Fold this sequence. Notes:
- By secondary structure, the chain is α+β, with helices and mostly antiparallel strands.
- About 45% of the residues lie in helices and about 10% in strands.
- A hairpin with a 2-residue loop joins strand 6 and strand 7.
- The termini are far apart.
Amino acid sequence: MERQRNMSRSRPRGDPRAIPTPLGRWYRDHRRDLPWRHTRDPYAIWLSEVMLQQTRVQSVIRYYERFLGRFPTVGSLATASEDEVLELWAGLGYYSRGRNLRHAAAMVVDQHDGKFPSTLESLRALPGIGEYTAAAIGSIAFDQPTPVIDGNVERVLCRHGGIAGDPKRGEARRAVRLAAENALDPADPGDHNQAMMELGAMVCLPRAPRCGECPIESSCVARSLDTPEAFPPPRARRDPETQHWVAVLVGDGERFWVVPRGDDEELLPGHRGLPLSRVEEGTASDRRRVAVRVLRGLTGRTPGGGESLPVVRHSITHRRLKIHPVRFTGTLELAGAEAIGPGEVGRLAALFRKIVSAGWGTGR
């Protein structure tokens, strides 16, 4: 061990081979106690990695524990209905992830006798599993010696090696991948990969990094230049787009009707929810006419009435949505339609929960 420490100290600044020893020691002493770090079950690891995409760690924990409580094995998930899965997924966003979980579980049962595949190639053949997720499952559950590269790892390696440019493109991307391979601890790839991600999440922050707490600061190029925030360079932000949508609420004040939505829908495809139609801002009368047209297209009948409700605001990635609900009294006679009450609203996606709650809030 002492020989390894001396070798790490003797390497030139920016050499990724100087990373594993001090990083591993730091991780053992400082890692967060997270539920998915107490298992080698590839199903549980897969679930955590999918949930952690675009979602903060502390927000994921309760979803992860509730999901595993309902579907403790890949076999139990494979036999679940899509509605059951999406009900538990509601609030995590990016709902295609939840649908892909169910589809992938069915493939594991049908094609792998219920046992999670262990090779990177077979993992990537499952729906929703890309290079990053396959590497995470492969290294943590099966000791596959392959590096995991996410945004946190890219930032750590760019700063440590002084890699200029966008790490997702061109020469910088190739340099990051080479550094990740050279930094990997083949004796314990799972913990190494988690340590790299932990370092980026807790110490090597995008802004105001805590360099004084970093176990690899002595070999870090960006630290020596005193310009850590210059690596990687900031990416141009996409300006948010404001969109206006009409949402159709049909109900009796106590219940509202939700419908299955097609996979080709622009907003929340494949979800059970409210009929939506994208519009220009327009007036309340314009929006009512749109709502009437939507209902006529669904049922073949022209409804009467239609009350415009206050706007509901919601953000999804780069979109700033202004939803204009129009409420009709009655029932929605349509194949697959379902009336839901207040106790069932949690089954809906966050956007639909907001709209339906707005309908109850103004109608009681």
